[in-house]
Amino acid sequence: MIDTFVLVIATVVAAATPLLLAATGELVVERAGVLNLGVEGMMLIGAVTGFAVTIASGHASLGIPAAALAGAATALVFAVLTLTLMANQVATGLALTIFGIGLSALMGASYVGTPVAPLPKLHLPGLSDLAVVGPLLFGHDALVYLSVALTIAVAWFLKHSHAGLVLRAVGESAESAHSIGHPVIAVRYLACLFGGAMAGLGGAFLSLSYTPMWMEGMTAGRGWIALALVVFGAWRPWRVLAGAYLFGGVTILELHVQGANGIGLPPQVFSMAPYLATVAVLTVISAGKWRGRLNAPASLGKPFRPSV
Amino acid sequence: MVQHKGAGAARLELRGITKRFGSLTANDAVSFAVAPGEIHALLGENGAGKSTLVKGIYGLLQPDEGEILWDGQVVHPANPQEARRLGIGMVFQHFSLFEALTVVENIALGMERGTDRKALAGRIAEVSRAYGLPLDPHREVHALSVGERQRVEIVRCLLQSPKLLIMDEPTSVLTPQEADRLFETLRRLAREGCSILYISHKLQEIKALCSRATILRGGRVVGSCDPAVETARSMAQMMIGAELKSLARRKSKPRAEPRLTIDDLNLPADGPFGVALKGVSFEVGAGEIFGIAGVAGNGQNELTQALGGERQIWPGKAVRIDGRSVGHLNAERRRLVGLCGVPEERNGHAAVPDMSLAANALLSARNRTGLARGGIIRRQAAHGFAERVIREFGVKARGAEAAARSLSGGNLQKYVVGREVLQTPDILVVAQPTWGVDAGAAATIHQALFNLAQNGAAIVVISQDLEELLAITDRLAVMNEGRLSRALETTDATIEEIGLLMGGAHGAPVETTAQQGSIQNVA
């Protein structure tokens, strides 16, 4: 019984990690006032690049940074189009997703069906051998710990560092930030690159750990869930962390329901659950006395054109 | 032209500053100097180049020609950080604050990186106490009143011990009492040796505060004067370079039957930062101009929307025209029964920036003036109507096909007011009719309102500019936190009394001031 429980929790963690990586990245992008809807595309590019480099080099330690770089490079395309050339952010983000789906399929065509060794679980002498607690807390691979560490780092960065304050200011009012002398466009570029790298890492986790192989469109909508998570978490890193594990749990629940026939609900209901939860949360926090806490960055999605 | 006061170099001296935007020369060889501890006024109409000039000093723009001398040394501030390092501080007309951030976070953004925010909070409390500008460092800015927000900007400057403080129209958002407190602070700073460059349209203030004024017109310096010995009228004439038209004041009529009746109007707040209207009641008779004063954000926007029909009201009897309930009608249907409105925001609210003036005329005037009979646009008629507005209101535009965004703020305001006035409404609701509009254009707009009232219309003017309300209204009332005060006869009202109804100075005991009695208007 306890073994099953530990197993289920471990799969929940695995399902939550790519969501957490991508959503934390997108959170930083949105706090800087940029709406990048291309998360799904960037995750796929990261997934295929991480996979290909790992196969070619034989080292996941090269594949993972390569995935982050590939995600950032994809985000750079978005940044140039929307920040420098002033293209519409929503349209460009959607195009980026479609572009990512196509390009990753092309890049990965020869890798379909190729196996890869999954990322090794870290083994901490003593800790990992503990009963129950060991496999729950100390039996995961490096990306899982990295995702939590990066979320904590982002939370600290936004709240306590000067650069994080500038980033929030840029997302709140680009004009004001400009008028007191902060480089709005540069800040937004860096935020976009970070968001792309995080999405790339999320993709690499899918292709190197979650299901260690490459499949076309293997993110299966996780990029969209990550976007929903940012709203669900009201643009706060800690709530995004909680939300990622909640949504991860729902995903796993879906798998188990498909296996068991006891419950009368069709599995599609569970596939819908993350989106329904997001809509419900949005409705609740947008209405009545909660409304002031919605916390959306005031300049979100608004282009900034510095006056001469 | 260049003035040197006292011994040594001037704190700031401009020599031949020129700035061009394409074919437009915004500043043309501007030269003047500000001595240490001097409060120097920069006067000029809209588009005279005042903002461009101070942006150049503050490093937001780079002049094309000319030199900026700082304590005798040539400097080229490339960005605001460099200007701040020199000791130049600036308080913006539209605040550069971040609503969702706290006071201390806002101020930290203007400091060098690596500022310890705990220590900074302590210094903010200290400086704000020392200068009589009470401020809680840990409150979020959206919860502050406009006067408190301005304090944040000033304290931000003071923390860097500035040697020159640039203030761009600082009092346009303050109650008279708050403005007096601000003047105290500025005088004290000047005594301590800080120079102040003060931009304002309010000539009475400049007379009271400044020891020197430089006047800009069309980007050039056209004169300088000592405001204490000039009259407001003579300075206004230097600004516009022509005789100021006197308003043909109407005779007051005995009050007729009310045409517009607002009866216990209640409206819930729209959004977290909105204000609810609570039991607002007033009446406006034929030929009467009724003023609504108040500090911004006390429900004036909501009242404008409720009167104009942008927000509908059930039951409709809270708003009545000639006894008929119209509260439930939308803006277009209210126009058809005779009520036209001019909202506060010109670009994007009163007019669609990217559409032509003719198309903008169609949007509001199509039914009352028959510009689109049976749903089909009569292009010629719309064009003619727009041309008529341009002609009768002296709008400077390339013609009826010019895009609304290509007009300067004052010209677009004349166009928008003209568009509504020429529909000969029975009732006109105007918000901030002369906001950011220079003296000449303001006189045109005021005269149009007088003429409309003379012909029997009832007019409601919602304005933050008390001098304007005192000059043009018959009666006025004050909005404070969604409630409307009793109406005062304008001839009996004093600035002080109105200031008290506005709620006095926010967060501070109300002080009696020297600004008593009736105030003479520029016009």
Automatic annotation (TrEMBL), chain A:
It is a multi-pass membrane protein. It holds the Pfam family BPD_transp_2. It comes from the Bacteria. Keywords: Cell membrane, Membrane, Transmembrane, Transmembrane helix. The chain crosses the membrane at residues 6-29, 41-60, 66-87, 94-112, 132-158, 186-208, 214-233, 240-257, 269-287. It is found in: Cell membrane. This is ABC transporter permease.
Automatic annotation (TrEMBL), chain B:
GO terms for molecular function: ATP binding. It comes from the Bacteria. Residues 12-243, 260-506 form the ABC transporter domain. Keywords: ATP-binding, Nucleotide-binding. Pfam families: ABC_tran (PF00005). Belongs to the ABC transporter superfamily. This is ABC transporter ATP-binding protein.
